[in-house]
Amino acid sequence: MVVQSLTNDLKNINKRKILIDVAKKLNCKFIFTPEISTDIASQLLSNVALGRGSHIPLDTGFCDTRDEHVTILRPLRVFDIKELALYNYFNNLEPVTIPENVKDAQKSVQSLIENFVTKLQSDFPATVTTVLKTGDKLGMSNDKTENYRICYICKGPISVSSQSLTSEKAIKVSQKISRESIQLTNGYMFDGVDESNKKTCFSCSNIEPFLIT
């Protein structure tokens, strides 16, 4: 499941890169993508599960402004499939569908969460809306200090701080304790985590070992 989850994550990153590259080639400043409410809710929960919680506003918000020349917009993010079906019906529109292979719900984190959200939408529609509203309340800091960097894989912002204890540092310390002995410094274990050469966000650091350089 781990490898497939990382593969899906990398596919999404590459898909975004391809869309932006094509948009630049065609001199387009905006890209409209077709994600609906269940897609956004699934992406939000997947981000949390994969360690991309800090990128939720970019991956699920109305605007993705990571690229300074091309902006990705998600105009359908608050609508569900029934609303779109009714809109198409009353306006005599024929939707374009692309056949997809049947996904194994147990094969990856993304498919597991997608299956969960789909059932949630079917049984408790209001819950998906609550997930979206919760995601909308999450914001990103605009304070670009010297510790502010950009992940070279997903182009998302990463914050390198040597002062505060973060969940990412806690995970890395736990990994160090499990794999090797570390020396305490000033009584704090997380001082042993070196982030001076950090080039990726937490999630992409798991993808990086599989990339061909």
From TrEMBL:
| A Pfam family | CTU2
The alphabetized list of GO BP terms reads: tRNA processing
InterPro entries in the record: CTU2, Rossmann-like_a/b/a_fold
Superkingdom: Eukaryota
Question: Is the keyword tRNA processing in the record?
Answer: yes
Which keywords does this Swiss-Prot/TrEMBL entry list? Cytoplasm, tRNA processing
User: What is the protein's name according to its record?
Assistant: Cytoplasmic tRNA 2-thiolation protein 2
Query: Which organism does this record belong to?
Result: Cryptolaemus montrouzieri
